Amino acid sequence: MSTRTDIVNRRLLKKDKNVESFWANVFKQFKRNKLAVVSTYIVLAIVLACIIVPMVSPYSLEQTDTANRAQAPSRSHWLGTDNIGRDLFTRLFIGGRISLGIALAVVTLECIIGIVLGTLAGYYGGIVDGIIMRISDIFLCFPFLIICIVIVSIFSSGPATLILTLSILSWPSIARIVRAQILSLRELEYMEACEALGISDFKRMFRHLLPNVMAYIIVYATLGIAATILTETSLSFLGLGIRFPIPTWGNLIQPARELVVIQKYWWYWMPSGIAIFLTVMCCNIIGDALRDAVDPKMKR
Amino acid sequence: MRKQPILQVKNLKTYFHTDSGTVKAADDVSFDVYPEETLGIVGESGCGKSITCMSIMQLVETPPGKYEGGEILFDGIDIMKASKRQIMDIRGNQISMIFQEPMTSLNPVFRVADQIAEAIMVHQNVNKKDAEEQAVDMLRKVGIPNPERVARDFPFALSGGMRQRVMIAMALACKPKILIADEPTTALDVTIQAQVLQLMNDLKDDYQTSVIFITHDLGVIAEMSDRVMVMYAGKIVELADVEELFTTPKHPYTIGLMKSKPDMSTTGDRLTVIQGNVPNLNRLPSGCAFHPRCPYVMDICKEETPDLRDISATRKAACWKVFQEKEVSYE
Amino acid sequence: MSDTTKQDALLRVDNLVKHFPIRGGLFKQVKAHVRAVDHVSFEIERGKVLGIVGESGCGKTTLGRTMLRLTPPTDGKVYFKDIDVFAQNKEEMHKLRTKMQIIFQDPYSSLNPRLPVSEIIGEALMQHKLVENKTEMMDRVMDIIEKCGLFPEQAFRYPHQFSGGQRQRICIARALVLNPEFVVCDETVSALDVSIQSQIINLLKEMQEELGLTYLFISHDLSVIRFISDQVGVMYLGEIVEYGDKKQIFDTPRHPYTEALLSAAPSFDFEKIRTHKRIILAGDIPSPVNPPSGCRFHTRCPYAQPLCAEEVPEDTVVEPGHRVRCHIASGKITVNR
After folding, report:
1. pLDDT digits over A127-184, tens only?
2. ipTM of the complex
3. Global pTM?
4. Interface size between B and C, measured as CB pairs under 8 A
5. Which of B162, B262, B274 lies at the smallest CB-CB distance from C227?
6. How many other C-beta atoms lie within 10 A of the C-beta of residue B7?
């Protein structure tokens, strides 16, 4: 018996090197993809900078330095100032906070709605499935931009409105992924074994089905963050998202609508452009690498 | 005496370089195929039987696969060194292949006749109309009832047995010298399998084709082959005439395999088993790969890999115990 | 079938029917039925093995699943020790599940890849409150995996770390940890390599003897069925066409389909290969959606006569415990063999 206790203890102390869980395996596969690892570091660095820079920066969001308006990057203003003399370095990272925050909030919200509705539809099928899927059909029919314009013109265009609009418009796709996965997983023999063993509905849904869907959800969420950042920036660029004076990466590049700005004031728009590009590209690389790691069959 | 071999495989090495190490899927495999014979290759999953035949057709995906060495001599050409054009000319024309799951090798969007006719037109100088007529003719030969109608069907409209017949028709359309059949009846039901096996035997005689028949089913191999080659962990362990092999198997793996499969005459309470698991190909045991599961294991088996040696005129084996017994019997 | 009725039947299947509706059209109305299992009756004695053999689409898998109520039956009854399985409510069925288990064919899709072996096997023990706490659960899990030929230190590993044969051992352990009395083995060894197959067959036999289990062993492999079964039922298109002791089925088959099946099974016994005349059935297996009229086998039967297409044959008891559904056996037609 002592050997058995040893085995259990070794496992509890995580000393058993022979145990390799699914996620440990995914992590191992992910680490093999060097590009994805570098991307992860870049994203982490951007996120950290967005948290720290505004805290330690000598300038505040609204503080204007009227003496130095439209200055090119210099020692005191690392990324220069805008036309009313605000420090663009500080604004870039505050904008990043808001852009990333919105993306994270939207994806979280849409995943919650999507997972719950998708799971219910997939597991129970029949009428429940029919109703949920028809509702999602309706949502998928809405012309995205027009809805945004309508909502923005009815309500104010604050971050909360934007988050709600985007997540309500995008949950159907994740609900569909979850539902499709659950429909196919439900047919697997281990689900049938669960039924034969008398495992409860609740456990079957949350211990057996969802963890198996989770991998796909995480992949989708990573790619979703990239997509949401792009959507938010394009909306803000068009003036439909978050508006001045709150900075986001999207409205920071807004001045680039004028040719003069593109030609002469590159520091107005280029840093946030690069930030968007880096974040979106890295998120996409991470998402692809995760997909390969989660499902090695998808490779090649 | 035997005739000249039609196909000679010499020291074939096909490896796979994966993240977790090198997999020697076919390791130093040598054998001959003679005209009009059926050579059976039998072994468990991962023993290298399919990879060996894919190498003959040069169908192994590279990378991850890599031909590390060896010669495959067919008709005076070394297939391993042949140009793409030469290989295209051999493949499907002189050497054809049929697979376990016919649905994956038939294109679902083309009609049956079109697919067979296409195979004919690639290798023969005929127009479409003649090729289609030949196709219908082939369908009749493989025993498909109402071939004119079936020729116009799409593959999904056919049953598994019918699809395999279509595959055989396609493979034989160019009258190949060698037909490689990779588990052609494994996915079929017993009664349908019997039909297809009989058909293959009949056609083989009609077309004077050599057949390389791959399967894991000992019963099928015994009924189909003239000579049998047993593979384990990427190597040939025993090669002999079919009756000799099944009545007096010599290699401990062959013996174990035959004993562990219940036959219609098996009695008793328990089956004889080969202990242990099929080894992981990227972590093969040292020496003879079978030694951890072998009941007759000796010290030498753990250190040195036995090569495939002639035991008699009709038998080859790779086993230290068999070598020893042979020496003893000669003295 | 009164002759087969014995007092100590653990399981009694009475006229079991399972039809799957095929829906189609604008309103998803039922267009036809797949007659997967059609009026099947048999009994299994305690401690015995009933082998069900048949080709794909004969309904053998559906039979096993319907008996355990994993799919709802269309008609008929199943009695487990005089308990009417289909009449149980949700709670009673939940309890009954511990007594009737199933082991599947595919060792890959039948284990949840996200759970360690200890959880896969122990989960049902916790669910049915058969153990007080995790420590006790681990003890039971370790006991059963040792019995099934695995090592206790493998208990915390995940399914992908095991080979096909080892996974099948885990599946067996999962089914047996609840101490069931009846186990359906649905093609349990079909996906395994020959050398692993024999290990698993031996394990199933050992467990049967040690735990006094009763099996319904479903397979398409005649030699495996012959080795493991006491009674054998031969299925064709949803019906049991011949049923009897192992000896009766394999030595003196009476149904032409059983004969053909036995004759078609490849063998590496050279005495047999030399002397054996093979019966090769013509044609394909008909669809169970539209089974042939009369005797369902008449389209492929080498002895078929006009009557066979018109009249459905009745079960005929040809010997005690040996029943055949064929007009030849019942004497309605005569043929020269």
Report:
1. 889 999 999 999 888 887 788 778 877 877 778 888 888 888 889 989 999 999 999 8
2. 0.85
3. 0.85
4. 128
5. B262
6. 23
